[in-house]
Amino acid sequence: MGLKDYVVKNREYITEMRRYFHAYPEVSLKEYNTCKKIEEELDKMGIPHRRVGETGVYGWIDGRGNGGKDKVMVLRADIDALAMEDLKEVSYCSKEEGVCHACGHDAHIATLLGAAKILKEKEQEFSGQVRLFFQQAEEIGQGARIFVKEGLMEGATRVFGAHVSSKLDSGTVSLTAGPQNASCDYFKIKVTGKGAHVSTPQLGIDAVYVASQIVVALQSIVARNTDPLETVVVGVGVLRAGTQYNIVAEHAEIEGTTRSFSKEVREFTNERVKTIAKQTAELYGAEAEVEFQGFANPLINDEEAVEEVIEVAKQVIEEKNIISNFEKMLGADDFADFLQETKGMYAFVGTRNKEKPNTASAHHHGLFDIDEEGLLLSCNLYVDYALQILK
């Protein structure tokens, strides 16, 4: 038992790639240089590829084995960074002011490149096709749908991805069936009232007051409309209204998000937001327009796929290091869009090391860092799961 030799020998390559991408991060839908570097690496490996949208990369490896040719394994890595400062003092810290890979997507790119390199070398050992998704714009929930829209999930047998986690020790992995990440929807409510001088409020319809009533009423969705055993968030992050202190505001805007772990609860919650906003506004003589944008589906790991990956993991790590009951997270990941198309799963790979304090920092924090040894396990799972499906 232990990491496979073909993975261990690529330690330096994976580390080098991770540090390169960490030093040169790019935000969602602006990953132009990131794409260029990925394409350069795929060219060196002799792997064909093309752009998906302006800033995603799709590569493919056709197996040359003697088995069936109809199976397709999709491996995915997200590639975008965050608009925030890198606070670490390391040789590979971000060289781009105000941009940082504070969630681990740099590690995901490096891991998938390492897996691609190994699978290309092993193309005689499998049949079918490996599809490599270097996906843009995960942080804003727009990248996965571009790949799906272009038909790149058609015919897929399985889809697999892995995310680094500062909650788990290096050398451990979460392979948990069922809901793992919540859906994420954005809403904007535009309230239109009637302006007046604050000394004569009866002549106006106060959009600030109406919007405030809507914000309060929205909390009833969780408190009184939802089964207490369900996990639901209805959060308001922005309330914008008025032009001057002595004017009854004519317009107000509310921006927020809803999150849940099932399709049914998601649909119900979003409909309640619309109904409450419109009816509350009407009660006070105002009008409300509600706009929703779906950023991500709930991420629900397929039980059969999870069992398959567990069998792979048992060949390289002790069973006690495989976590099957990882806590659900209300943070979203648009990998869920791929799981709408075929069976698959999303793993969480430990990259926390007590001897490296920053590796315990929270995701989306400027000190966030990883234990790069954890990436070898991630790479091993990518490679061996693909080989298991395609052999």
Describe this structure in words.
This protein has 391 residues and is an alpha/beta fold. The chain is built from 11 helices and 16 strands. α2 (11-23) runs antiparallel to α4 (105-121) and α6 (207-218) packs antiparallel against α8 (263-283). The chain is elongated, with a radius of gyration of 24 Å.
What are its keywords?
single chain; 391 residues; alpha/beta; eight-stranded mixed beta sheet; four-stranded antiparallel beta sheet; elongated
Produce a short descriptive summary.
With 391 residues, the chain is an alpha/beta fold. It is built from eleven helices and 16 strands. It has helices spanning 5-8, 11-23, 32-45, 105-121, 143-149, 207-218, 220-224, 263-283, 303-313, 336-339, 374-390; strands spanning 49-52, 56-62, 72-78, 129-135, 158-169, 173-174, 178-181, 184-192, 196-197, 233-241, 247-248, 251-259, 287-296, 299-301, 322-323, 344-352.
Layout of helices and strands:
Blueprint: H1 5-8, H2 11-23, H3 32-45, E1 49-52, E2 56-62, E3 72-78, H4 105-121, E4 129-135, H5 143-149, E5 158-169, E6 173-174, E7 178-181, E8 184-192, E9 196-197, H6 207-218, H7 220-224, E10 233-241, E11 247-248, E12 251-259, H8 263-283, E13 287-296, E14 299-301, H9 303-313, E15 322-323, H10 336-339, E16 344-352, H11 374-390
Parallel strand pairs: 3-4, 3-5, 5-16, 6-15
Antiparallel strand pairs: 1-2, 2-4, 6-16, 7-14, 8-12, 8-13, 9-11, 10-12
